[in-house]
Design a protein that fits this description.
- This protein is α+β, with helices and mostly antiparallel strands and 460 residues long.
- The chain has three domains: 2-148; 185-279, Helix Hairpins (Orthogonal Bundle); 288-436, Heat Shock Protein 90 (2-Layer Sandwich), CATH 3.30.565.
- Helices cover 65% and strands 10% of the residues.
- It contains eleven helices and seven strands.
- It has helices at residues 2-34, 42-48, 53-78, 82-170, 185-240, 249-279, 292-309, 329-345, 377-380, 394-399, 404-414, and strands spanning 288-291, 313-318, 324-327, 352-359, 363-370, 419-424, 428-436.
- α4 packs parallel to α5 and α5 (185-240) packs antiparallel against α6 (249-279).
Length: 460
């Protein structure tokens, strides 16, 4: 802008100078034309003809000589010597007159030539100024674009780099750093992000160590507890079966409670062991090809008696396309048993439980639907966490360990499948899980609006 202003002012100044020069030249031309009438004051004219001094001096000399000769001619005519006067006029006055006219025309022509040169110079000045302004305008636009790009890049690129780093942090990468050379707030923010990444990495490693120690502790303790617990269960069975003599009714009731509690505790220990194995990566699947409908029906038989005691109706609907799959049958049965036990536990008397199975997207899709109490949306966010139980049914919660669904989800994921839940308070709950038909395949997340993905939600 400053350069454009400077060029514009300089152009205006030159145009103004050219205008003054043309005015002076116009005056010169007018003054020079007056010489033909010999009515112009040469003393005043000399200030106009500053650039034509030589011509003007010759003009002055010839003019004075011409005036002198004309005066002599007039004198001769007044003295009655007309012939001499006319002879003097033709011999000397006329040549001087023609010379004066030629010099006058020369002055006029020179002034007009200067006028043409001045006009051409004005045009050239205008063209030069116009081109300079146009070039400066284009250069200013280009510079503005470059500066805008540079400024935006200095802001956008660091933000994008930090956004990428944040995504890496979310994916568990705590080792990389974001490099932002800015010495402004963005640079400070990048430095803070790097420090936070280091601190998170350190905390994450500490948490991994704590989790590993926890899993090792639980596994060791579970192994240590199973030996005396199996002894307690075995002795209670011996006493309950009367192998050591018939027990009194009260004693038999206590022994039954001991046996039931022992079985419940053994189930909890087994679930803890399974979870510890999965978290440590030591859980292995004993894959084999088996007929999935038969496994579903067999698992349903295990909970049918308990459901019948509560007046619950059991429905089974298996698609004819559902057949053999390649999976760990014992763990599939464990998944089904956990889901069915939950359904029986949280469904009021005279309710209904439905099991459905079909093939979808090259995977077996099994759903367990009940007409129970349902799960609130806020509880669905944490339902699959270990040792978490939700809802207000204290009796049902007291029967559970808070590990069943956490273990079921991990077993499904271990097979390469997914598990999700759909539920509304008072409207029941539907748990659905998928299992790949073959060991090499995996299942993609389904596109269902009400679905919560495998990290998702279920009741414990």
């Amino acid at each position: 802008m400053l350069a454009s202003g400077y060029v514009a002012l300089r152009a205006l100044n030159e145009v103004n100078q050219r205008k003054d020069e043309m005015v002076q030249l116009q005056r010169k031309i007018g003054a020079y034309r007056q010489l033909n009438r010999f009515g112009y004051d040469l003393d005043r004219l000399q200030f106009v003809a500053q650039d034509e001094k030589e011509i003007f001096e010759n003009l002055r000399t010839d003019y004075e000589e011409f005036i002198r000769i004309v005066s002599q001619v007039i004198t001769l005519i007044r003295q009655g010597r007309g012939d001499e006067g006319r002879e003097l006029q033709f011999s000397e006055a006329t040549p001087h007159s023609e010379r004066l006219e030629r010099l006058t025309n020369e002055l006029v022509n020179k002034a007009e030539a200067d006028m043409v040169v001045s006009v051409d110079a004005s045009k050239e000045t205008y063209a030069t100024s116009r081109n300079a302004v146009a070039i400066l305008a284009v250069a200013s636009v280009a510079m503005a674009l470059l500066l805008g790009y540079a400024i935006s890049s200095s802001i956008v690129r660091p933000v994008q780099a930090m956004e990428t780093r944040m995504q890496e942090l979310a994916d568990g990468d705590f080792h990389s750093k974001v490099d932002v050379p800015n010495r402004d707030e963005l640079g400070v923010l990048a430095a803070d992000l790097n420090r936070m990444s280091e601190q998170l990495g350190k905390a994450y490693r500490e948490l991994e160590a704590v989790s590993r120690h926890k899993s090792e502790f639980l596994a060791n303790m579970s192994h240590e507890l199973r030996t005396p617990l199996n002894a307690i269960i075995g002795f209670s069975e011996v006493l309950k079966d009367g192998l050591l003599g018939q027990l009194a009714p009260k004693h038999e009731e206590y022994v039954t409670d001991i046996h039931t509690s022992g079985q419940h505790l053994l189930s909890l220990i087994n679930e803890i062991l399974d979870l510890s194995k999965i978290e440590s990566g030591k859980m292995e699947l004993d894959r084999s090809r088996f007929y999935l409908p038969a496994t579903i029906e067999g698992t349903l038989t295990l909970v049918r008696e308990r459901a019948t005691r509560h007046g619950l109706k059991m429905n089974l609907s298996l698609d004819e396309t559902l057949g053999e799959i390649d999976a760990d049958e014992r763990k599939v049965r464990q998944i089904l048993l956990n889901l069915l036990s939950n359904a029986v536990k949280f469904t009021p008397d005279s309710g209904q439980i439905s099991i459905a199975g079909a093939i979808a997207n090259d995977a077996a899709q099994i759903s367990v639907k009940d007409t129970g109490i349902g799960i609130s949306p806020e509880d669905q966010e944490t339902i699959f966490e270990e040792f978490r139980q939700v809802g207000n049914d204290r009796e049902a919660k007291s029967e559970g360990t808070g590990l069943g669904l956490a273990l079921a989800r991990k077993l499904v994921e271990l097979h390469g499948g997914l598990m999700w839940v759909e539920s509304e308070i008072g409207q029941g709950t539907t748990f659905t899980f998928t299992l790949p038909l073959n060991a090499q395949s995996s299942v993609q997340a389904p596109n269902v609006d009400a679905v919560v993905t495998a990290s998702g939600n279920a009741e414990t």
